[in-house]
Design goal:
Distance between the termini: 24 Å
Mean pLDDT: 84
Number of domains: 1
Radius of gyration: 16 Å
Strand order of the largest sheet: 3-2-6-7-1-8
Largest sheet: 6 strands, parallel
CATH topology: Rossmann fold
Structural class: alpha/beta
Number of helices: 8
Low-confidence stretches: 188-206
Number of strands: 8
Shape: globular
């Protein structure tokens, strides 16, 4: 259950099982690297470590990566988030200086960058849901100017508190595609998930 980096501009995965997000991110990044495209991963150390192991396993025990493998850049989610905040809130200028520069450094040779990010999830864990929505809007503005695909991951339990459920809908609306490791479940498992606001096919035509 991983988005196609060629066709989807901005995808979100709501997950309960950490193994599900690990498998999804590995599949997403592996597909990009095998196609010779670069990948940017902004993740917490646990996922970054697991991704390194899984990619090595794919190379050694699966189909080896060839000489045209894309470049992989991994950044720490919490450190990167803190570096782009001003007065505790994601700042557009700093976001472009940090994340925009990272994307630009990888976007060589007309290759689409496959990005995965957990900074929005970190904000929600800190109880800063409105800032997570704001950061999603900064990402969307950057994606509109870049040849890149973004995959975001949110633990579903973050949206179980009543005060967080409205933000769940806002975050879904910021994405072109919504994935869920429990098909049809909302944040509490009590109401169905709706389709993404925009079809991935439209992204492919941009």
């Amino acid at each position: 259950m991983a988005p196609d980096f060629h066709t989807c501009r901005h995808t979100v995965l709501f997950y309960r099982d950490a193994g599900a997000v690990r498998a999804s991110v590995t599949g997403y990044v592996e597909a990009a690297l095998r196609a010779g495209h670069p990948a940017l991963v902004i993740a917490r150390p646990e996922l970054a470590h697991d991704l390194t192991i899984e990619l090595h396993r794919c190379h050694v025990h699966g189909r080896p990566f060839g000489p045209d493998r894309g470049e992989l850049l991994v950044l720490d989610a919490e450190a990167t988030l803190d570096s782009l905040c001003l007065a505790g809130r994601p700042d557009e200028a700093r976001f472009r200086e940090v994340v925009g520069a990272a994307l630009a450094s990888l976007a060589t040779g007309h290759k689409r960058v496959a990005a995965y990010g957990e900074m929005v999830g970190v904000l929600c864990e800190r109880g800063r849901y409105a800032d997570a929505v704001h950061l999603e809007s900064l990402w969307n503005a950057l994606l509109a100017e870049s040849d890149a695909s973004l995959f975001c991951g949110y633990p579903r339990h973050l949206f179980q508190p009543p005060e967080a459920r409205g933000f769940y809908e806002q975050i879904r609306a910021a994405h072109a595609e919504t994935l869920d490791d429990e098909d049809g479940a909302g944040p509490t498992g009590t109401y169905p998930s709706r389709a993404g606001a925009r079809a991935c096919a439209s992204s492919a035509r941009e």
